[in-house]
Design a protein that fits this description.
Layout: E1 8-14, H1 18-21, E2 31-38, E3 43-48, H2 52-61, E4 65-67, H3 70-79, E5 91-93, H4 94-102, H5 108-116, H6 124-133, H7 136-160, E6 162-166, E7 172-176
Parallel strand pairs: 1-4, 4-5
Antiparallel strand pairs: 1-2, 2-3, 6-7
Helix pairs in contact: 5-7, 6-7
Length: 194
């Protein structure tokens, strides 16, 4: 499989909801936990809000960041904590690729169920409730499961050039994707000649 050794799969959970901040304002959401899979070390790791600087230094040195709705949600929320713009780092948003191919969006759960036979273990609103209850371990377990599911969906798409979903009539359909073409040619541009 042609993955880059320093790609990263990422998912975030928040402390609050859009309802609580009065609408779809990613700049008003606060991170509770970020789950990450590093291909470079074959490890799953997580970062709480106060640990985000450690995550950012890893992301700056990584290859492509892979997520599901990461360009529309995860990166804008993380940008609330970052001095630069994380959206300028190499990205592959699986949901954006699906929307390009189909013309509409599909939940990760639906794609994962059809493509890899696995569903997510819950939903983000549960994670917000766990945050309010102080149950960090439940958030960590849930978020890292989402990262695992996203990773497996990505790897399936990379290998088969398609993902699967069941349409409204229950018929299984293929979604053409080309994740290999999205590999960046250069991940770092050093202009200072160090």
């Amino acid at each position: 499989m042609a993955t880059m050794t320093n790609e990263v799969v990422l998912d975030i959970e928040t402390q609050n909801t859009f309802d609580e901040v009065g609408g779809y304002f990613t700049d008003k959401l606060k991170v509770s936990l970020v789950g990450v899979y590093y291909y470079e070390t074959d490890t799953y790791e997580s970062y709480l809000e106060h640990e985000l600087p450690q995550l950012f230094s890893r992301l700056e040195r990584s290859g492509r960041i892979i997520g599901y709705n990461s360009i529309g949600f995860d990166m804008p929320v993380l940008n609330n904590y970052y001095a630069g713009d994380l959206l300028k780092l190499p990205q592959l948003d699986i949901l954006a690729e699906i929307q390009k191919s189909l013309g509409y969006r599909i939940k990760l759960d639906a794609v994962a169920q059809s493509t890899i036979g696995t569903k997510k273990s819950g939903h983000g609103l549960q994670a917000v409730q766990w945050w309010k209850e102080g149950n960090i371990e439940a958030i960590r377990e849930y978020c890292l499961q989402d990262v695992k599911v996203t990773r497996e969906v990505y790897e399936y798409g990379l290998k088969h050039n398609c993902l699967l979903f069941d349409d409204r009539s229950g018929e299984r359909k293929a979604i053409p994707v080309d994740f290999i073409a999205k590999l960046p040619t250069a991940t770092l541009n050093l202009t200072l000649g160090l």
